[in-house]
Write a structure and sequence with these properties.
about 35% helix; alpha+beta; about 15% strand; 18 helices; three-stranded antiparallel β-sheet; 4 domains
Length: about 475
């Protein structure tokens, strides 16, 4: 059935593609990861991609019918589908990301992107825009490569065999390759089936120890180096006949020197030092803690005062009541009339901090929690004791308290009980006072009966249920007759 399917017009290789890498000096190439499997076929086409599958080795088991939902590698039209999707994405982003869209439309063949530009910055922008465009449909470029070091995003991952910084008498990279080969020959035979492993072992036995057969040829005598540099015709005998020392007895051949020179200092990537406990970190870094904290405090204060330093004269006019002055460390402080007092300098001339700084807001939130969510007056007073004056501190601290979750809960009003309905005798209109009354005693009181005699007494309070008028009667006793 595949021979009846048209290949499509997009699959034809664009004539611009092969020479695109040769046009400009910075080339970039990339490969779209799992391109075919990222594209879903329409339901009408899926039924033409059915296949029969039987589980297990039993031929009598019933087969199952499956169908592919993704674009297959074997279809003749699959490359056309893939390139159509990529160019459709490029058309969508042609105005927003023209460089990446142009690279996908003109310099992409199936899943390979190859483009060349003039400058490294343009190459980086091309990579960024292409990644952004293909990510719209969940595509990704798995490997970006470039001939420019500033653009290449795939440096060698294996850092074990790194070429030395300066020339050595014995190239260590070749030695490490030889050692790796000898270890491979010794160990690889055990990983094959018996037939192959037996013949590899026979080869090893017939050739003896590979390490003993390794020889070193200096670069000046190595014929392989003749292919990498221009040489005169007379020197071709070196290539055809080999080095002269090969014609001499084997005992006089060049031997390799085990005493290698030390490597030049190679800058290694620093490994971060980790600590299992915070106490260990504090103990490790506890050198001149007081001095470091003092200098850090001055840096933070200057960061907070950055907005005040922009126009110092304007700041002094705006806050003239504070008599702003600059100390020896460049910190703005308040003046005042306490120079003759015995107070510390930090209290006589506190540091001025603007309320609009984010660091000052963090300081206010910290002090609000430190002083147990008390009022702004308490916080301002304690900050003054620490030598800090926040300009506009009242408004700032009120804002901090308004946003504090604990304070918002504490300021909530208690639930109030609803009062019951008033009785009918209290709400009758046009009744004379004391038509309906309520009575109660309060006391005891000392009542002076004569000059030298005082007796206990109580007061009867009579209140009108309608008008709330009150009448008081003195009672020496609380019996019925007195009432």
């Amino acid at each position: 059935m595949d021979i009846l399917v048209e290949r499509g017009v997009v699959r034809i290789l664009d004539s611009k593609m092969p020479v695109s890498l040769e046009r400009r000096k910075v080339a970039v190439t990339g490969d779209i990861s799992k391109m075919f499997n990222q594209i879903e076929m329409s339901e009408a086409d899926q039924r033409f991609h059915r296949f029969i599958w039987r589980y297990g080795n039993e031929s009598c088991s019933a087969p199952f019918a499956f169908q592919w939902k993704r674009v297959l590698f074997g279809d003749t039209c699959s490359p056309d589908f893939a390139m159509f999707v990529i160019r459709m994405l490029a058309n969508v982003k042609e105005n927003a990301q023209p460089i990446g869209a142009k690279a996908l439309k003109e310099n992409t063949y199936i899943d390979d992107v190859a483009n060349s530009v003039s400058e490294p910055e343009e190459a980086k922008r091309t990579i960024t825009e292409v990644d952004s465009i293909v990510a719209m449909d969940k595509f990704s470029i798995k490997a970006w490569n470039s001939n420019h070091a500033a653009v290449d995003k795939n440096p060698p991952e294996n850092e074990e065999f790194v070429a030395p910084l300066k020339h050595k008498s014995t190239p260590k990279k070749e030695l490490m390759g030889a050692i790796a080969m000898s270890r491979l020959v010794e160990e690889v035979s055990s990983r094959f089936i018996p037939f192959v492993a037996t013949r590899i072992q026979e080869f090893q036995d017939s050739h003896g120890n590979v390490k003993e057969e390794l020889r070193y040829v200096p670069s000046k005598l190595n014929p392989a180096d003749d292919l990498t540099k221009p040489i005169p015709v007379e020197a071709l005998k070196h290539w055809h006949q080999g080095p002269d020392f090969l014609k001499q007895p084997e005992s006089s051949w060049t031997k390799f020197d085990d005493k290698l020179e030390t490597d030049s200092e190679i800058l290694e990537k620093p490994k971060p030092k980790t600590f299992s406990f915070v106490e260990a970190l504090v103990e490790e870094s506890s050198v001149n803690v007081v001095e470091e904290l003092g200098s850090a405090k001055q840096i933070v204060i200057k960061l907070c005062q950055a907005s005040l330093y922009e126009d110092l004269e304007k700041t002094r006019r705006k806050y003239f009541k504070h008599d702003i002055r600059v100390d020896a460390f460049g910190v703005l402080r308040s003046g005042g009339r306490l120079d003759q007092s015995n107070l510390p300098d930090e209290l006589k001339h506190p540091v001025i901090l603007p309320a609009g700084s984010q660091l000052v807001r963090l300081l206010a939130e910290h002090c609000h929690r430190k002083f147990k969510h008390q009022g702004y007056r308490v916080v301002i007073a304690n900050l003054r004791l620490e030598g800090i004056l926040i300009v506009g501190g009242r408004k700032l601290l009120k804002s901090v308290a308004a946003r504090c979750f604990f304070c918002r809960i504490r300021r909530k009003k208690f639930l109030q009980q609803r009062m019951g309905e008033l009785p009918s005798f209290r709400i009758q209109p046009k009744l004379a006072p004391f038509t309906s009354v309520a009575m109660d005693f309060f006391g005891h009181l000392k009542v002076k009966q004569s000059r030298n005699v005082a007796v206990d007494g109580s007061v009867l309070i009579i209140t009108c249920a309608t008008t709330r008028c009150i009448h008081l009667e003195l009672c020496l006793t609380q019996d019925t007759n007195s009432f």
